[in-house]
Amino acid sequence: MAITPAASLGSSDDVDGVSRRFDDLQYRGDRAGIEAIVSPRLRYITGTGDVRGREAFLAATTVSGSRLNPFDIREREIVRMGDRSAAVLGLATISGSDASGRRFSRTLRYLDLFERIDGRWRVVLVQVTPVAASLR
Q1: Which residues pair with 112 in a beta bridge?
Q2: Is the pTM of this model over 0.70?
Q3: Which of 9, 12, 15, 79 is buried most deeply by CB count within 10 Å?
């Protein structure tokens, strides 16, 4: 398995570029854009360990009235598993305000699993794990 350093920026054609676009779409809460990248069979493992599907992920990432700051992503790695799949993992701090105007900040380890389907990289699994304050 090859690990691609975070510093390498790929085109929108490769998994690195698609992954970065996926992050940006989530930051902007762009439901149509997210829908175009996530597989209909997406599995979403929440920070509490629940396994949910595509609709739950879309609801969680496109909350009406919330405002996000740009994501602070560190320790980003891409692990390629052949020509058709890749895992993108990292440590992300997500902050902003919820629909009620309350400020929040949380740090998560994340894993996005991509699969090349019909010539396009699609997200088939997302897992987020809250990180203890001492590890931030």
Answers
A1: 88, 126
A2: yes
A3: 15
| pLDDT, tens digit, 9 for 90 and up, residues 8-61 | 333 445 999 999 999 999 989 899 999 999 999 999 999 999 999 999 999 988
Place of tokens 């994340």: 110
Token pair for 59: 């609801």
The structural domain count of the chain equals 1
DSSP annotation string for the chain = --EEETTPPPPTTSHHHHHHHHHHHHHHT-HHHHHHHEEEEEEEE-TTS-EE-HHHHHHHHS-TT-EEPPPEEEEEEEEE-SSSEEEEEEEEEEEEE-TTS-EEEEEEEEEEEEEEETTEEEEEEEEEEE--GGG-
Calculate Rg over the CA atoms of the chain.
Answer: 14
Rounded to 5 degrees, what are φ and ψ at 22?
-60, -45
In this structure, the chain runs to a length of: 136
CATH of the domain at 128: 3.10.450.50
